[in-house]
Amino acid sequence: MTPGGIPGYDESASTYGEVLTNGMCNAHTRGRKAIWLGLLLFTFAAVVLGCSQTKNDEAWVVTGTFDVLATSPDGRQFSYTMRGVEGKYAFIDEVVVAGKRQKYMWHFWGKVEDYAGKGLEVKATSREGKTIAVWSGGLAGANNGAVAHTPSTMSLPAPGLWRLDVYVGGELIGHIVVEAKPAG
After folding, report:
1. 48/72 same-domain check
2. pTM of the model
3. Low-confidence ranges of the chain (pLDDT < 50)
4. Confidence (pLDDT) at 92
5. Which CATH number is 157's domain given?
6. Count of domains for the chain
7. In degrees, to the nearest 5, what angle opens at C-alpha 133 toward C-alphas 139 and 79?
8. What is the pLDDT of residue 172?
9. Distance in angstroms (rounded) separating the CA atoms of residues 162 and 124
């Protein structure tokens, strides 16, 4: 309360009517400010939630492919189509069939010391949030231009999108999103 016990009391007002008018104008102004503040907060929340939803959806886009040139023992050149992050990690692309154990050859690029003597572990998380271990094994040396590689067998139990979390030496180095097709 202001002096005089009246909201918006203005000692310079000459009449009681001016005091009431000033009080109402101040209350009206406060109400408009509250509405604008509410709209601003709502807009901010909508943008933040919208952006986080977009980011979440982007996390579930099937990872792209790229080609890697290789040379056979007899000198012929050919290419492999890889699924993963070019220049970092990938496996030779293969259609993933739910419930079927399949072979995949993993490749890693970068510094030899980042991979030498380390193991590979792959965990898969479904879009619904179910996480399973799908592969664990050691890494071998250079192959197809990569500094490390390893053969693996993996199986995803259900059709749909799966995020493969790639761990080298116990450290998460990235993800590959695949779509497991229904068997048959």
Report:
1. no
2. 0.69
3. 19-20, 45-55
4. 97
5. 2.60.40.10
6. 2
7. 45
8. 98
9. 6
